[in-house]
Design brief:
The chain has about 160 residues and is of the alpha+beta class. Helix content is about 35%, strand content about 15%. Strand 3 (about 65-70) and strand 4 form a beta hairpin.
């Protein structure tokens, strides 16, 4: 602050010809100037974020109405939610009267990672290898929205 209690700010702006001009906070800009503003935010504390997964696919939950058997292990899922993301799962659930489906050629952890990617409340960082395995399952199960989401994260 200066002696009069006003804050002195100096900005650098560019005119139409890309020439740099310095202005102070009490100067007025006329049309034809380009002003670039940069804001830096420093987080000091984060609250309200769950560190563990909200969905546990390994135990029964009343919201889950189907079971996938992968490498001999049970994975509990919700038919409607999974069908809304994957057309392949939709047809699997439509053709099987039983709510238990055996998935062959799928690794258990890859299937869990795929399901965690689908559920938006599950927070986890994925490395590129895990993402590529999730993309492979998304292609197999025709979950195009998952492929699009991962593509946005990578690029």
């Amino acid at each position: 602050k200066n002696r009069k209690g006003k804050t002195n700010c100096v900005c650098v702006v560019k005119d139409k010809r890309n020439r740099a001009c310095r202005i102070r906070d009490d100067d007025k800009l006329t049309s034809g100037f380009i002003v670039k503003t940069f804001i830096f935010i420093y987080l000091t504390k984060v609250t309200g974020v769950r560190k563990s997964a909200l969905f546990d696919f390994t135990t029964y939950n009343p919201l889950n109405d189907a079971t996938l058997i992968v490498e001999g292990k049970e994975i509990h899922v919700n038919k409607q939610y999974l069908s809304s993301v994957s057309t392949e799962f939709r047809s699997l659930f439509d053709t099987h009267a039983n709510s238990t489906i055996l998935l062959e050629g799928v690794k258990y952890q890859d299937c869990i990672d795929f399901l965690r990617w689908i559920h938006p409340t599950t927070l986890r960082n994925y490395n590129k290898d895990e993402m590529s395995r999730v993309v492979a399952l998304a292609k197999r199960f025709n979950a195009l929205s998952i492929i699009d989401q991962i593509a946005k994260c990578i690029y």
